[in-house]
Design a protein that fits this description.
The protein is α+β, with helices and mostly antiparallel strands and 231 residues long. It is built from 3 helices and 17 strands.
Length: 231
């Protein structure tokens, strides 16, 4: 057999192997993926539509690092191509507000679906103007400057507040401040309430320990002002 015939025979053999291997090559890395289904709700378990849920892989594998899904009118979302059994952290994005709601979960085995046992619950949002919305009570909050403030100064600031189009802002009641505290608001100072205790004293709420007290309205050391309104 000539060298040319040998070369042609080898070439045909290699070509035949490549043809037989083509299905395997095409399917390499394209096996079944893992699915994940869940729901986004507010503080009253009402579905939140039109928000983007982002799944970021905690130990990135190329091609599987991040996926996005948008919730439907029922608040539900689905990821169809997660890396099987990998750990992902879910977070939420919206063009008009931010939230610190996250959840870490494990993707299902290959070809299977994970159904989140608990929804992603958005308790608070902060919009582009800094207005905080408590999604359970529907109250909107705005935090005043980080300066010592007496009661009269707090009252005047609230009355002149124009953020968010202005209108409706008032000093909060003690029960509202406690609800804000219970919802997870973290703050290192005490905050004036709009409730008067006596002609010279008013109620305040201590965010660092959850108690309410009454102070002289002229006191300012450590005092801060919050404004609240019904959404």
């Amino acid at each position: 057999m000539s060298e040319m015939d040998k070369d042609m025979k080898i070439s045909k053999t290699v070509f035949a192997v490549l043809i037989l291997s083509l299905p395997l090559l095409l399917n390499f890395g394209c096996g079944k993926k893992s699915r994940l289904e869940g729901k986004v709700v507010d503080g009253k378990n009402r579905p939140i539509a039109g928000v983007k849920v982002i799944a970021r892989q905690n130990e990135p594998v190329e091609g599987y690092e991040q996926f996005e899904s948008t919730t439907g009118s029922d608040g539900k979302f689905t990821f169809k191509k997660l890396y099987p059994t990998a750990s992902y952290t879910l977070s939420i994005w919206h063009k008009d507000w931010k939230t610190d709601t996250t959840m870490t979960t494990e993707a299902a085995p290959e070809g299977e679906t994970t159904l989140l046992q608990e929804p992603l619950k958005v308790l608070m949002t902060v919009d582009n103007e800094g207005i905080i919305t408590d999604t359970a009570t529907r109250l909107q909050w705005y935090v005043g400057s980080d300066n010592d403030t007496n009661w009269d100064e707090a009252n005047l600031w609230v009355k002149s507040l124009s953020v968010g189009g202005g209108g409706g802002w008032r000093m909060p009641a003690r029960a509202e401040l406690r609800g804000f505290y219970d919802a997870g608001m973290e703050f290192d100072h005490w905050v004036w309430s709009g409730e008067i205790y006596s002609p010279s004293e008013a109620w305040a709420f201590l965010f660092y320990n959850g108690y309410d007290v009454y102070n002289d309205r002229s006191d300012s050391a450590g005092g801060r002002a919050f404004a609240v309104r019904n959404r």
